[in-house]
Every structure is written in C-alpha cells, then in structure tokens.
Amino acid sequence: MPPNDEKTAEYTGPGPASGVSAPAQSAPSSTAPHPTASGSRAGAGAEAGAAAGVAAGAAARARRQSEGAAAPLIPDTCNVGIALRTLALVNLGALPIVLVGSDSLRDALWRLLATALLLEPIVLGSLAALCLARKWANGTALRMQWCVAIGVPSAVALVVLLVSRMVPGALASGADVWWVTARVLLAAAAAGAVIEYFRLRARAYSPSFSEARLQALQARIRPHFLFNSLNAVLGLMRSDPRRAEATLENLADLFRVFMRDARDLVALDDEVITCKEYLAIEQLRLGDRLKVAWHLDDMPGDALLPSLLLQPLIENAVHHGIEPSSSTGTIEIAAVRTGDRVRVEIINPIPDALPTRAGNQMGLSNVRERLMLLYDMEAELKTRAEGGTFRLEIEFPYRKERRRRDVRRHFDPDR
Q1: How far apart are alpha carbons 309 and 262 in whole angstroms?
Q2: Which of 111, 150, 193, 263 is 20 to 30 A from 224 (CA-CA)?
Q3: Residue 288's CB: how many other CB atoms inside 10 A?
Q4: Which residues contact 104 (CB under 8 A, 6 or more apart)?
Q5: pLDDT tens for each residue of 69-78
Q6: Which position has the higher pLDDT, 415 or 237?
Q7: How many Cα neighbours within 13 Å face the side chain of 221?
Q8: How many CB atoms lie within 10 A of CB 205?
Q9: Degrees, nearest 5: CA angle 311-374-76
Q10: What are the angstrom distances between the C-alpha of 235 and each of 129, 253, 274?
Q11: How confident is the model at residue 130 (pLDDT cuts 50, 70, 90)?
Q12: What is each CA distance from 330 to 189, 291, 348, in whole angstroms?
C-alpha cells in the first residue's frame, strides 16, 4: 500500500480516481436548493446512487488487493517453473488413463504418442493464452477469474481437437461430436484442478496476511532500533536541530513503508530510497564507522520487486559487518540489469568479533521463500564469503512497472 494518499491515487486503474470523482458528483446535490421534502429525499437518493456507482466503478478498476481487488487466482504461466510444473502435472494425470486402456506395451506406447500429440499443444497453448489473459483477469471478480482460468484451456482444447480432425489418421474412427465434447470437459476439469493446486500451494507458502504483517513488524521495528534512533535525535536537538528534524522525517518515512501492504510490489528505486533512509539513521548512530558505497548508474529503477526485500538484508549487513567492529567498514550496494534479469549485490566486511545481540529474525531463508513464492525458479539468492567480505547476490526477472507515477519519492541526505 502506498505510504500516502497521493500514492494511493497513482496506483488505481486507468479511469479517474475515486477520490476525485465522488466529490465532483456529490457537490451539486449538496448545494442545490430543494423546494420540497420529497425533492430533498429524491436528491439524497440520487446522491447516494451516484456515490454507490462511483464506489462500484472504483472497485471494478482496482487492480491490487490493497485497493479492494480480489486475490489473484491465475498463476503466472509465463514463469518457467510454473509452466514445467503444469506440464508435469497434466502428463502424470493422463498417464494412468492411457495405460489402463492398453492391451500391450506396444499399444500403450502408441496410445501415449497419440495422446501426447494432442495433449502437449493444448497445454502449451493454454499456458501461452493464460499468460496474456491473466494481466487482464487478475484483479477482477473471483467468479470472472475462474471463468477465464477454465474457459481459456477449454477453448484451446476445442480448437486443437477440431484441427486434429482434419489431419488424416490423427484420431480413432469413433471420433465425433461426443468424443470432442468429452475431451473438452476433461480439459476444463484438468484446468480447474491445476489452478486449485497452485492456489493451495500459494496459501501453503503464505501465512495469513495479518499474521505475516505482524511478524514483519516484530522483525523490523525492533525496540532497540527505535530507542537508539530517538536517543540520537535527542542528542542533536540542541546542537544540530536541522539534522534531528531530518532524522525524524526519515524515521517517519520508514514507519510508513513498514506499514505498507506486503502484497504489493514496489519499484526498485522506491526500495533503494527506503534503504537510504534506513542507512541515514544508522549512520547517525554509528558515525564514521559506517560507510556506504552505492553503484546505481545502471540500475533499472522501474523494475518491480517485493516490498521491503532489500532493507532487511542491508540491516543484516550493518548488524553483522559493521556493529561488531570498532574500525570503519564499508557496505557496497550495486544494482544492474543484464538482459531480462536484475541483479542486486550487497557486500559487507567480515569482522573478527561476533555480534553482541540477536540479528533480524527475517533471515535469508525467509527472503528465499518470498522470492520462491513470487518468481518460482526464476529467482536466485546466493551468498559467499571471500577475501574478508561477505557477498550476497539476488537475481530476479525484470518486470517493468507499468503504472505511471506522478509522485515519486526522493531522498535528500541534506534535508
């Protein structure tokens, strides 16, 4: 969820924002004089109807769960991992059906080949069609999503089966309307089963959203961080009030981001600003011991990633690489796009002393799970220690932010 009202308006659909349309429609009704009580009631009814229409239109245009849209049902069939899982599930499901009706090994192999010639085009065509349709369907009513999820594979199966009838010898002699109808219904049932599998799989990876947000808050808004930040501000109130005010502004921005709905994706430049605000507070506390080197010249700022994915990793770098040492340490952060992938690298020194307190509970395994849930096999998190430094690399697919943002966050280190 965007941190303020202006940001909320940016992420609505292509139509006008509901916050603008409602007052425009209700203002005439509230200011125009009504000569009779019945006219007043009629005007109030018209105003309520207009407001309901605006609300319904806003709900229809909502594309995110935080805006009131239904949870996405159709999985990302453009993803290689999901496509491979779908192929495996469908083929494994068809295997027993083929083998049960076979009289011999030769007959079984022939039936497997004939089934594959029909099944693979249906599955691959359905994956490609759903890849295009999900961008429109996800965010609509749940009933509409189910219709698309089942209707698209059924339509693809119907087309493939009708085309196969024109190929001599492709089907058995008993191929007719009922033969095609039965297989279209079977394709619809298989599509529903696959969609339900991925839905249950997503629920298994994701706890309830309220529980997830509570865990995230407990992991990130740690009492010692808030205590140390406020103590640092108190120490600057008289000596450097401008810097104290800037620190409070950074702290307020961080808390807004911490309260953001974790279901939404954010642009990489937004995530970087969050990390800079966090590091500015830590630099105030650690002083010259913490140095930060940013390498962002080739960063794709519009690349989408899960909210608060990088900040906990940078917090771990500060905790494990800078705090235990009394000498100056440098954290290097680089982001670059290579082809259709984005790579982020975080490097911190390895001190001789061990940390004196527990680290962030949102560890690397949790970050891996978030990447797995969103990107499946297309994302990768690697760590290694070499030359006295600890290197962490994250790679994920480049998905461009499609919504134009009129209000962008900016980080001013001198404010």
Answers
A1: 10
A2: 263
A3: 8
A4: none
A5: 556 788 888 8
A6: 237
A7: 15
A8: 12
A9: 150
A10: 60, 21, 24
A11: very high
A12: 57, 4, 6
d(CA 206, CA 212): 8
What is the rounded distance in angstroms from the CA atom of residue 299 to the CA atom of residue 332?
A: 14
Cβ count within 10 A of residue 172? 8
For the four alpha carbons of 21, 26, 32 and 38, in that order, the dihedral sign comes to positive
| Predicted confidence (pLDDT) per residue in 296-341, tens digit | 999 999 999 888 888 888 988 988 889 888 889 999 999 999 989 9
Q: Which one-letter DSSP state was computed for residue 262? A: T
Q: Which amino acid is at 267?
A: A
The DSSP output letter for 381 is E
Per residue in 348-379, pLDDT (tens digit) is 998 876 655 544 445 677 788 778 877 878 89
Phi/psi region, residue 375 (left: phi>0; alpha: psi -120 to 50; beta: rest), is alpha
User: Which structure tokens are listed for 113?
Assistant: 């080949």
Q: What are phi and psi of 196, to 5 degrees?
A: -65, -35
3-class DSSP assignment, residue 218 = helix
Q: Which two tokens stand for residue 401?
A: 């932010």
Residue 287: count other Cβ atoms within 10 Å of its Cβ.
Answer: 10
Structure token pair of residue 227: 């205590």
Residue with structure tokens 């009394």? Answer: 326
